[in-house]
Amino acid sequence: MKLRSALLPTLIALLASLLAVLGPLPPAVADPAPAQVTGTVIDAVTSDLLAGAHVAFYADVDENGMPDGAAIASTVATDGSFDVFVPAGSVVGIAEAEGYEPRQTEVLHLVSAEETILQLDLTPIDDGTGTGTVSGFAADALANTPLAGAAVSIYADADVDGQPDGAAVATTSAAVNGTWELTVPAGKYVIQVAHPTYETWSSYPGRAPVTVTSGGSITNVEAYLQRVPPTTGHVSGHVTDQDTAAGIAGATVVVYKDDDGNGFPDEANPVALTTTDAEALWASTLPVGSYVASASAEDYDSGVHGTFTVTAGGELTVDFALEPTTPPGELGSTIAGLLTDTAGTPLGGIEVCAWTASDTIQACVDTDADGRYALAGLPAGSYRICYNDRLPAPGEWATYEMLRWYLDKGSRPFVTPVVVDGTVTTTTLSTVRLRKLARIKGVVGAPALVGATSAAGTVEVYDEDGERVAVAPISSNGAYEVGGLLPGAYRVKASGSRFIGNDEYPYIRQFWSRRYSFASATPIALGVGEVRTGIDILLGRTLLATARPVITGRRIVGATLRAGRGTWNRQVGTTYTFTWRRGTRVLSHAATYRVVRADAGRALTVTVTAKDPDGWLLSGSSAATTGVIRQ
Length: 631
Description:
Layout: H1 2-22, E1 35-43, E2 53-59, E3 71-77, E4 81-86, E5 89-96, E6 103-104, E7 108-110, E8 115-122, E9 131-140, E10 151-156, E11 170-173, E12 179-185, E13 187-195, E14 198-202, E15 210-212, E16 217-225, E17 232-241, E18 252-257, E19 270-275, E20 281-287, E21 289-296, E22 303-310, E23 315-317, E24 320-322, E25 333-341, E26 351-355, E27 361-366, E28 372-378, E29 381-388, E30 404-405, E31 418-420, E32 426-428, E33 432-434, E34 438-445, E35 454-462, E36 468-473, E37 479-485, E38 488-500, E39 503-506, E40 510-511, E41 524-526, E42 531-532, E43 537-538, E44 545-547, E45 551-552, E46 560-563, E47 567-568, E48 575-582, E49 585-588, E50 592-594, E51 603-611, E52 620-621, E53 625-628
Parallel strand pairs: 1-8, 9-16, 17-23, 17-24, 25-32, 25-33, 34-42, 34-43
Antiparallel strand pairs: 1-4, 2-3, 2-5, 5-6, 5-7, 9-12, 10-11, 10-13, 13-14, 13-15, 17-20, 18-19, 18-21, 21-22, 25-28, 26-27, 26-29, 29-30, 29-31, 34-37, 35-36, 35-38, 38-39, 38-40, 38-41, 44-47, 45-46, 46-50, 48-49, 48-51, 51-52, 51-53
């Protein structure tokens, strides 16, 4: 016992020396932190979030794309989004939802403590016997207003050639707000939308055949219909004696086109000829357009009715009151005067006409080199005197104002008349000064197109009331000139296309300067005879947002937010996608987003990207719109 007691201190000393040489024992090794996987599960057809979808992750150590045994992590996408922690390493994910084909991801290489974002698109199960729904809306392509009652037909397109296979599978009519919905068997379809006064719209060409899956839903089939140009209208009226109002049977009425709107018949090009019946009535059906007409009868002076417009399906009354021929010996009265410009320079070669109270022309003369005129041989009555610069040659513009009335600048029904008694007397009017018309010049440019063989474009000018007052072509070098403009404020719009063979590639229409609507366009103020240059416009191909999208909905957890598309420089024929973000993290690409707990107190943003389905125009994205979610 004494020996053991003596050795014990020695052993303890040796053990302490050994520990000093080896150093402290290493700490226990902790498991690595898991990776975070977040994302959404959506319908591959509608992009709707799939609430209740199941998401599981499996190890895939050999990276062959096949799960190794049981799931190592799983979760339920309660609102269509998920957030789960998964052990780091090589894994595959599988998403499942009732009524959908399972979706397996490619091999994911998850890094410890880092986040991976996924979007899992599930395709609805199509057993070939179920049905799906197709919905959309019909609207006027120009006014963007709903087309209530538009006929919607859907046709099978099994061979995917864009042509209907036989009779319509289903039909319906658009509601008052232009919306419609149809339920059809699963398959591939072509949709057509028709309206009596519009050209029929078809989903092909322009997009792939519509694929309907069992239980699936296709939404937002946007049908913008172009109005069919009007056809004909009906014109009728009576021819009577101006003094007695008695009807004149057998009078001849001739109708002429008046495309230039000068109010004078082109006697070489009549479009209709008729005679009045026993009731002194005449009638004619005419294509839509502008016309003038003349009436004549034995023992009467001919009468001309100024410009009238025939509208599609319209009923228009055009009457004539003819003046009896002046008996021999009654030479009539004379109306004389002087015509100058605003600087007082005499104007020769300007037409001056006397219009009767019945709205017909009694006499016309041209001013002489000194600007003087004399309308002689006028029967007793009241006359409205009109001054009119001669029509220019095609491609040119009038120098002085057209249809200027004595003592007034308005239309002839509101002009102060000149009264004569029919005797051999002369009434001298005060000097009339015609305003010189203004002009606008500029250059329209556009990006080049490889392979283009030609180009074409027009410039349109609108007055302050939004009425188009002039149109001019764009020359091959991009220059244009628009004349014939009275003093005032105007807005200028340009449009153009390039061509490769027979294929047209249009640019986005644009107002000066770099505006895309009449309301936002910059007005151009013109003075008398002013020539404004430098009104240049550069057309483009890029879709631009002129107003950012708006977020609607309650900004609280559990609520659904909706993003509007905003306003773009081309609305019709454009498709849109959405991107929701919290910080830099992408949350969804749907038009709506359901707020989750992780969003509380954070700012959510949404941006909209516009695309041209035809691929000619360049895509563009809006500025982001931000909304803060309440705690």
